[in-house]
Amino acid sequence: MRRGGPVALALAAAAALSACGGETESGTEAPQLNPLYAPDRLHTEAPDSFRVVMGTSEGDLTLFVKRAWSPRGVDRFYTLVTNGFYDDQRIHRVVEGQVAQWGLHGDGRVNSAWYEAYIVDDDVVLSNERGTVAFAKGGANDRTTQVFINLQDNTGLDAQGFSPFARVVDGMGVADRFHSAYGDGPPRGEGPYGLQALRDGNPYLDGNFPELTRLDSMRVIEFEQGDSP
């Protein structure tokens, strides 16, 4: 599942500067800016297992997440969820009956900051069966923020190193209703162009693809003990 082609974003330096706090030249306290502009400051080790409610314009889904399935992936996902990264996004890539993908922030500066915040691959413990969730990637060790739900059994992705870290345990029918008429991105479909969505965020997506399913929020709702949902 592609993460997006290589691109050098001019906003990277601006995002890094925007993340700096401290005082202004006049000595007054500078406003606190979005912590998502500084991914190197954000890392949390996730609990062994937990559930996440994913609120969308089509309804809610519940994910069961287990750290043993993909430790680095779960730590990244937990960090992003608990810092609000996935709030007010769009399910920007839906290939009907195959995958549904999200993880591009509505603010292009945030995407710029995370573009090369790579995490090392995990072993594939859980197969890419229908309802599992994994990080998108374009090659080895380049997972960042985009994730996808397998809408069918995509076990061929196992050999490519896609390591599922969660499973949809309630609301899989909601995922099947995610808007898919735009199809894949160019050149394989008429959906959003990934690099432009990365750069311009929600203004590009909403202006050109208004029917995309909205991802309103993702929230950790409980921690669990044990090995199963």
Question: Can you put this structure into words, describing what you see?
Answer:
The protein has 6 helices and 9 strands. Strands 3-9-1-2-8-6-7-5-4 form a 9-stranded antiparallel beta sheet. The radius of gyration is 17 Å and the shape is globular. It starts with 10 loop residues before the first helix and ends in a 6-residue tail after the last strand. By secondary structure, it is of the alpha+beta class. It has helices at residues 11-18, 71-82, 108-114, 172-176, 194-200, 202-208, and strands at residues 49-56, 59-66, 89-90, 93-95, 99-102, 132-135, 147-150, 166-170, 214-223. It has a single domain (43-223), classed as Beta Barrel (Cyclophilin), CATH 2.40.100.10. Strand 1 and strand 2 (59-66) form a beta hairpin.
Radius of gyration: 17 Å
Mean pLDDT: 88
Give the terminus-to-terminus CA distance.
Answer: 26 Å
SSE string: HEEHEEEHEEEHHHE
Secondary structure topology:
Blueprint: H1 11-18, E1 49-56, E2 59-66, H2 71-82, E3 89-90, E4 93-95, E5 99-102, H3 108-114, E6 132-135, E7 147-150, E8 166-170, H4 172-176, H5 194-200, H6 202-208, E9 214-223
Antiparallel strand pairs: 1-2, 1-9, 2-8, 3-9, 4-5, 5-7, 6-7, 6-8
